[in-house]
Amino acid sequence: MDINEWEEKYKPITNHLDDNASLGGVMFETYGEELEFVRAQTNKNIWTYQDGDEGSLIITSGFRLIDRIGYVITEVPWEEYEVVELN
């Protein structure tokens, strides 16, 4: 699945706490008020934006701590573990 298919399927929400959020306005940071908001969500609606293998960037389903850059919350919950490569 590419990023466009992922966006269409899962419908990421806009970060309402930061007008200059990364990933086109949908990334939530890993600290402070943004992290509190992420942790208050159902795990099935949380995705982790992280470093992948050999310098790639990926979005994986679920709340993760390893290699995390930020988080994305989606309107539609994921059912199975998924990885979306961004580059």
Topology:
Elements: H1 3-10, H2 22-25, E1 27-28, H3 32-39, E2 46-51, E3 57-61, E4 68-73, E5 83-85
Antiparallel strand pairs: 1-4, 2-3, 2-4, 3-5
Task: Walk me through this protein's architecture.
This protein has 87 residues and is α+β, with helices and mostly antiparallel strands. The chain has one domain. The chain has helices at residues 3-10, 22-25, 32-39, and strands spanning 27-28, 46-51, 57-61, 68-73, 83-85. The protein has a 5-stranded antiparallel beta sheet with strand order 1-4-2-3-5. The mean pLDDT is 95.
Estimated radius of gyration? 12 Å
Name the beta content range.
25-35%
- Structural class from helices and strands? alpha+beta
Mean pLDDT: 95
| Total E-strand runs | 5
- Uncertain parts: none
Give me the strand/helix succession. Answer: HHEHEEEE
Report, as a whole number of angstroms, the end-to-end distance: 12 Å
How many domains comprise the coordinates? 1
Number of helices: 3
Task: Specify the helix fraction band.
Answer: 10-25%
Largest sheet: 5 strands, antiparallel
Major sheet strand order: 1-4-2-3-5
The global form is globular
Keywords:
5-stranded antiparallel β-sheet
In short, what is this structure?
The protein is of the alpha+beta class and 87 residues long.
